[in-house]
Amino acid sequence: MLAADGIEAGPFERVRDALTQRGAVVELVAPHAGEIRTRNPDGTLPTAHSLLTAKSVVFDAVLVAGGQQSTDLLRTRPDAAEFLRQASRHGKAIGAWGSGRDTLTDVRSGDDAARKDAAAAKGAEAASDGVLVDEEASEQFIERFATAVARHRVWSRDESAPATASPNR
After folding, report:
1. Residue pair 69/5 in contact by the 8 Å Cβ criterion
2. Closest CA to 85 of 131, 120, 118, 116
3. Which of 38, 63, 103, 145 pairs with 118 at a CA distance of 20 to 30 A?
4. Measured between alpha carbons, how far is 66 from 41 in angstroms, rounded to an integer?
5. Cα separation of 30 and 45, whole Å?
6. Long-range contacts, stretch 111-114, CB < 8 angstroms, 24+ apart
């Protein structure tokens, strides 16, 4: 999962626990190693990897966790955008909930991906390109994401129009 200081701990823990129960190994990737602060007072979460050294190609999928402060920070970081672009180019399942949708939409702008993301956020089925977004980390979202990850790759994803990040946000 991709996150930064200001992550919403409750939804993160719910998603992590649900995916772990399904057999996934969930690791937190952040701008720095060690720990990130949660939105909750005095809360922290351990990070497994730093964006400085982690590459998304070694993961089966990528989720952008919610939390406005966290996603605002990620949206300013070219390394976070590149992490997501690599995952997309390699056909990985990608998901985001809450404010994480904005981070993902920034990276995916340039084709009609933002429209697909918006449709998925309104309860539509998962986009055929393996990108899932939702307003919250609901059980339905978690189940759809787990199903996308189980497919291993999304070979139908169109990567002909490379996405660009908006680092000035």
Report:
1. yes
2. 131
3. 38
4. 17
5. 10
6. 111/158, 111/161, 111/163, 113/163
Domain 9-150: which CATH number of 3.30.450.40, 1.10.3210.10, 3.90.960.10, 3.40.50.880? 3.40.50.880
DSSP, collapsed to helix, strand or coil, labels residue 36 as: strand
H or E element: which one contains 101? helix 100-108
Question: What distance in Å separates the CA atoms of residue 34 and residue 161, rounded to the nearest whole number?
Answer: 35
Measured CA to CA, the distance from residue 44 to residue 61 in angstroms comes to 23
pLDDT for the residue numbered 114: 46
Residue type, 132: L
**Domain residue spans in the chain?**
9-150
Task: Using DSSP, state whether 94 is helix, strand or coil.
Answer: strand
Tokens of 163: 């996405």
Mean pLDDT to the nearest integer, 26-46: 91
| End-to-end Cα distance, the chain | 21
pLDDT of 89 strictly over 90? no
Q: Nearest CA to 100 among 59, 145, 155, 57?
A: 145
At 168, the pLDDT band (50, 70, 90 cuts) reads very low
Could you tell me the sign of the dihedral formed by the alpha carbons of 7, 103, 151, 87, in that order?
negative
